[in-house]
């Protein structure tokens, strides 16, 4: 007879009886399924009133194609490979995968190799110990007992509890992968923003250096005029103060460059060093048109939205598993091996051969508080996951609309400020000529120079903001990761 058929026949005969008995005794009342609120409808377009929105999106471009500066692309490649936060996120994926392997393994039977030895001293009136063995021999007292074989345990997933846990674990694996992508999109945006911050600071330093030269020349002219009796010491001190202020701004700019470079190096996973830059920020090209695509496309690409949705699926599976825990669990525990009361007889087969199977049904009857608490926890987590999903969609939509408007508004602002800088630079030249000809005061010259300096610094800041808004839009639409890069990592 096949030994494996015996546990199956035993289970087929007695499991229905045991299950019915357990259900009758426990009278389990499983809680009703938890209703999930209805999600708010996502608008069809990012700009209300648009009849023919663009279906393309800049988020589908990899960062190697989206960013034209090769120096920035090289920095991004380094960051994706060496950033510590991204490596930590990758390990979170591995942790989630281990959880899935454990949940999947719970569906399969376990088998253990067992070598056991025991000795018993039976009481004189126990009725055990003086009975004969199967071969007519009397058992010794104390009675040793030796077992060598296999023992197995298998919980049959009748109600889907283990399958629900496996589904929850798998959803968390996918959510952890989306979490890794979320870290990567944020990393790409941070590196790009810091890079353009460095370019803007370089431009500010260049503007300050140019004004330093102009103001130093003006100070020399005033000093010469003072010697000739055409200017006062007050004018000299005013020009000196303006020059010192500009040089102080230069020192501040240099310190901000150091801080930005160090922060960027940290994101790249390396110690401080100089960052190679490309062309000045005013010479960097911006796309003539920006395509945002449809909100549905954004929701399919944004890692935080996908992560929130997968967490919701995992929470629903947890609730299903918690509900199924109120029902009886069915367990098979077969065993096969060698058993004898003396070590010399242990391998005397078939006399020492032993096998058997136990089918057990366990149902929660008293003190079901832990099960109720687990169900309450799972239900609350499901509700929280739903609202987290709603929040992720609303935050994503808000970020896209804000960045989309920001790209256009800063484009207009940059055009206006460019004209303002040109006008103020002409005013500086005119004020210098008028002051030389005694038709303007030194206050007018200082005011013109200061206004021109502030306008140029604002123009540089606005150019930086243009790139910042564009990068924000790229990230908000779900850009910054691609399938090729994901597979490579």
Automatic annotation (TrEMBL):
Transmembrane segments: none
Any GO CC annotation of this UniProt entry: plasma membrane
Compartments, record wording: Cell membrane
Short name of one Pfam family: OEP
Entry membrane topology: Lipid-anchor
A molecular function GO annotation: efflux transmembrane transporter activity
UniProt KW keywords: Lipoprotein, Membrane, Palmitate, Transmembrane, Transmembrane beta strand
Main location: membrane
Family according to the record: Belongs to the outer membrane factor (OMF) (TC 1.B.17) family.
Protein name per the record: Efflux transporter outer membrane subunit
